[in-house]
Amino acid sequence: MEDYYEKLNEYYREKNSTVKCKGCKEKKILKEDNGNLMFSCGGKEKCSRSFKIELSQYINYNDILHEYTNFINKNNVKQKDKDSITKNLEDILKLGKKQLVKTNDIANKKKHINNYNDLKVKTKIEQSKLLNDINDPEYSGNVDKTELVKRYHSLNTILTENYKELYELYENPKILDIMISKGKVF
Description:
This protein has helices spanning 2-16, 61-74, 79-103, 106-135, 145-171, and strands spanning 29-33, 36-40, 50-54, 57-60, 177-181, 184-185. It is an alpha+beta fold. The mean pLDDT is 83.
């Protein structure tokens, strides 16, 4: 797969550079056709570099589920056939779910959400205690009430900063495409 990405980068570097090959000064030939990219320098003697890339193919997870549901609902499918189709689709989508979880870093996001929720609960409990002390006219603690107010607001600031970090994780859209065919270089 590493060779695939190297050649893909080379194809687009060549496409975005000069029209003529640096090695033999012939006009480069670049073709994009039906999921294939083809490159040739056009030279016959000196360098005659050429390669063909078959691009990876993807399907959209949500689109497949939607199309399946529509197919089953619109067609009078026998239960036996429906079960067979469902099993095949589930097998394909199991692999897809693994890709989606890995690609979208869902485990890390879940960990961040749980950490934020734990912090929020602890912070709200402490803020509640601080607020009770601040509003208690008979408060006789060691700390001045203005310090309690400052602490209350600092806890709120901490929560806000952590929320912003969490928001940044979800700012990028989820990727719902599943690779069904790896690209090849010829």
